[in-house]
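Can you please make up a protein's amino acid sequence together with its fold in token form to help me picture the idea?
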Amino acid sequence: MPSKETVTAARNWLAHDPDPESRAELRALIEADSDELDERFVGPLAFGTAGLRGILGAGESRMNRAVVRRTTAGLAQYLIAHEPEAKQRGVVVGYDGRRQSDVFARDTAAVLCAAGIPCWLSESVCPTPLAAFAVRHVGAVAGVMVTASHNPPQYNGYKVYAANGAQIFPPAERLIAEAIAQVPAADEIPTTALDQAAAEKMLHTFGAELERHYLDGIKTLYPPTGGDRSIPIVYTALHGVGHRLFQAAMGEAGFTAVDSVAEQAEPDGNFSTVQFPNPEEPGSMDRVMALAKKQAAVLVLANDPDADRLAAAVRSADGTYVQLSGNEVGVLLGHHLLVHGDDGNGDRLVVVSLVSSPWLGVIARSLGVTYEKTLTGFKWIANRAIQLEREAGKRFVFGYEEALGYTVGTLVRDKDGISAAVVLATMAAELAERGETLLDQRERIIRRYGLFASRQRAIRFPSAAGAKQMAAIMTRLRDQTPTTIGGSEVDVIIDYDSRTRCERGEAPLHIDVAQSNVLVFKLRGGHRVVARPSGTEPKLKIYFDAREPLGDDEPLAAAQTRAAERIDKLEADMMRLSGIS
């Protein structure tokens, strides 16, 4: 039975909820004295990690129209206070194909227009990278993309972009959250009917014309000719919004044999053929792999539902398919762009998240390219790139995070699974013309720079107590500092929460980094373990990296086996140290 305080909060929320559907849902829970109320009212859905993300449903701790209206009212107050041209330049609003995404987007536009801030609303569902592109293209002061990216179907979210086209980051997140806390109840927030806003020139739309500019921008990222662009390629949009623009971009790049999984091509908020619409998850790629085998495709590509991530698999010599990890795709793309895009200008820059493999850093430094690491998330990657471009005259070439997120150049200041797919396909075409594949190129890079193997372990904590459980594990790792992990000595511990770096036997030293709940254990031999709670999902994530030397004549498989065995030891010991059974 829910507490009296919870019931009181629920009744108060019910009195001000503007949505009849969520009111009915909440009324039924109150009348049933449902224990679920305690999870619906554990506090306001937190605004952070560039916005909101949560389970759909009634209540202050869920994603619903009341939460979206209050969030937008707080965003409007922030923009009016901090962006002098907010009422002239306006805000871009896009949305994906998830349940209620279109409703949330229209509510967002209605609140912004009522606050005197014009909107550019997507004419229909659109990929996240297109909305990010639109912010700079129309000169808006901000953008909102309604999406939960690759989360399960019961989720939705609200991502906010700054005027530079990148996701907002501190202190904007905190200031917006503070503004949200001050806004009135949802039914007291003014809204403007969208037909009225359009008549008053407050509401504009974006669609085909902006898509044309985006597609033209993608064309600047790869050579206009070269390679065998008749290679068979298969693709899945995983019931998301990427299919139409992906096919257009691939066609304009000259690819003539690109097929899609038909039953996953159109937006479907229920994701009816996959249990988890994330191409990293087991089973999510089954249908596109089956299509690949049927057509003997050279390359398999997949976007997540909002098309900001890219997964890839490659046909091997024996006809089986090897799915590349996010780090492998990142290194293939990064190496290609650095080697083939070298115009002699020494100011090139690549930026990766700190949980991504150290592999690209070794390559970049060997080529004289500036290499930067940031906290996890593209808000950090994009904003750091923009800062170094402005302050140090750097030329940003590529950025990636191991969770299948890549951005090529400055076309989109966020991860972009569509443009990255086209660039990867042009690489595959060039290799195919020589009778090779991306697997051959991967082995060349390994033999030149060494084998870097990676693995991630994600432990889910879906209950209301999950945050406390994750915090307890991180505290345990800090209080019981290991001296070895998996038989490898710990040489350095970097704690991004206390912002300290401690080398073995030395006192901790302060480091100038953004604060975050992340622990990095650097191990002897170039191995590494990183632990952090996810910022967007109820998960504790632990990342393992192993570096293995490779003899000149040694089979690659032998080194891969050694690396896997080493990671097995690291993982087993880290579970013990974390107290996770």
